[in-house]
Each structure stands twice: as C-alpha cells, then as structure tokens.
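User: Modeling request: complex.
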Amino acid sequence: MASVWEVLLYSVLLLAFQGALAPALQVPGWAWPMPYVLFWLFLPFSWRWEWEIGAAVLFGGVLDVLFPPIGLQTFCGLWVWGLRRFWLRLLHPSLMGDEARAFAPQRLSTLDFFLYAMPLTLWHHLWYFPLAEWRLHLGTLGRALLSSTYSFVWEWIIFELFLKRPHVTRGSPR
Amino acid sequence: MPFFPYLAWLWRAPVIWLLLQGIAFWMYIRYEPRAHTAFQRAIIELQAAFHGLMRWVTRPWWAIRRLEELERQNAELLTTLAELQGASTYSTYPVGACADFAFLKDYRFLPARVVYQTFHTHQNYAILNRGSRDGVYPGLGVVGPEGVLGLIAETTATYSIMYAIFHRSVYLNVILPLHGVNGLMTWRTPVLNRVEVDYIPPYVQVKEGEEVWTASNGLIFPGGLRLGRIEAIENDPRQGFQRLRIATYTDWHRLGTVYILLPARGLGLGGAPL
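Assistant: Request completed. Predicted assembly structure:
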C-alpha cells in the first residue's frame, strides 16, 4: 500500500517539475507539458475514496494557487480522478472487489500504461485548454491534442524512470 | 455517517465528486473575468429566453384576461352613458346599425355582453348578461354595432336568451328602402351571416348591393335599422315573387357589445312603442 509520504513526495516533485522545468520544456504556442496529471492517475486505489478525493482536491487547489486561474486545475483534475476507475474497469473488466482495490498503476506494462494514461490525459487537456483560453477554436483543440501528447511523453518518461515496478501477471505474487 | 438516514445516499463518491466539480468550476468562473462575463451573459440570456417562453406560453391567458377586462370596462362605460339618457344630455347607440334615426326618441339602447352563443345549429341563440332586473323582457329587439342581430326570447333575473336572425323560427318584416317594398326575412338556408328575403314582387327591379332595413310596421324592431345588403337575386318565374339573398352586416362570429332596444315609454298594443 502506497504511503501518504510517497504520495506527498510525488506531488512535490510534480509541482517542482511544473514550476521549474515546464516553462523551459514548452513548445511556445503549440504544446505545454503537464505531467502532473500523473498525480491523479497514481493516487492509490487502496485508499478510502474520501481520502482519495481529499488528496485530489488538495493537489488541485495547490496547483490553482501556484498556476492560476483558480479552480480550473481542480476541475480538470477531478475529471481525471473521477473517470480513472471507470476507465480502468473498461480496460480490465475482470478487476473486481479486492483485486481492484489492490490495483497499482505502478505495475502496469508500458502498453497498459499508455492505454490507461493517454486517454485520461487527453480528456484532462480537452477540458483545460478550451476553458483556459475560453474559446472553442480549432487552434485550441489542436493545442490540447499536441499538449496531451507532449504531456504523455513526459508522463511516460517519469513512469519508466521513477514509478514503474515489476509487472505482475495474473496469478503471480504482487 | 450522516445524522439523517435519508441523507445517506448523499454521502456517496459520485455525489461528492459532482459537488466538488461544481465548486471548482464556480470558483473558476468567479476568478476568470472572461468566463465570469460570459457566465453572466449566459444567465441573462437564459432568463430572457425563459421569460420570453413563459410570455409566449401564457399569451392566450393574458389575452383572454385583457379582453375580459376591456369588455367589462366597455360595458361599464356604455351603461354609464346609457344612464345619462335620462339626464337628456346624450345617449349611446349603435350608430352603424341605424339607417333612419327617427325612432331614437322612442327607444333607448341597453348594452349587453354575450355570455354564450351557438354556431352550428338551425336554431342559433346567444345568452346575454342582461335580465328582467335590467328591464329586459321577451320580444325586445337586439342589434349589434352594425346591424340587426336578433330578439329576446326568454329572460331570467340576470340573463336573457336571444334568438338570432340565424334561427329558423325568426321572421322579420323588412323593407327595401329604395323601392318602399316590404318582404319577409327568414333563415331557411343554414349559412351564418346570410339570410333570405321573400315576397318581393317580381316587378321591383332590385339590384345587388342595395340595402335592406327593418320595416317600420314590424312588431319587434322599429323601422330604419340596417339588416344587410343584397348579395344575390333569385327570380324564379314559377314563384310569384323574387327571393333575395342578403349578406348581413352582423358577423355572428365576431359579436362584441350588443344593444337591447328598450322602449323608452313602455309598450303599447302589439308591441308598438307608445
């Protein structure tokens, strides 16, 4: 079970990445990396949902304060948190009960991670960019698509370098 | 756990999630000026659309209420004016229905409102909101603003039934004023706003468009009230007279205020005013 300290460390590192590196890594006018979506994706499934949603809102609130406008990060992040179980159930219909609670995204294979993270990142960005720019324009949608791809690349790098644990197949010990 | 069991369903992840989403979005709308302005505009548009829709939906009720209000005001005004006749200042009467004004000194006009009317029977009638308390009794004539309308058949204290000229039992003595020839008005062909006049001698050269008035020797109406215009002439040689089809001035579909003719000094023998 992932500890609170582990989650706290993730969050601080992701915030630091966003504050320190993201401005330098952006492709001006086209793509903006936002790998902090990982936080909502990697919140431990074993926690009680009250703790999960509290952590999701808290992280969104900190993001809102650090990177305004206020409320937008929380709104988009809650989308990711709210849909991740639903999406996981679509990807792995056999995951039920204790097995679902014990699910750890850290043990996903690269392909599974792509299937799990990419659509939710895209969903996050499709909300974020039109609301932040406050217009529904083709350019806005293009930026959302490019940024979600770019964000996923960074999410993948972080996942492979820091988060990934040995992949577990059905029947093998976790 | 919540204090009230029936609130238990509220304490579920989707509800809390939705609530927090709403709060976050509301905060964003409050914070971001463009979003805030757009939100305010959307609210105003929504309000305007809602009010517009409600106005459109309730328009018939408002129109009916307005019409009733205007009719009531009109009736009150007409009653007040009619009562002024006794003060010998001036009286109100349907000018359009009067072709000859000689009878005016013998009658006064009591305004009335149509409470109900029939349309598709052979015996069309209307219920008026005047009764015996207002001095109305059977046998009185009724005119509209443009012409002859019918006669009072029955009365209660507050209401009366008027047989229309579009009633197959109603016959009126009429006159062709240009020729001084009398005829009998009937409603044999059941077409509203059309009547027939029989017994016009064949030697009278009537033309379409001529007016038809009530005859002065009638028992119900005084002479000189407009009935209608000749629309068609049927000259059948097998008959001993001409038959005229008259388009009435009164439109049975558009009755407004009607006027009951009250003899100013009571009735004489045969219903003729004294």
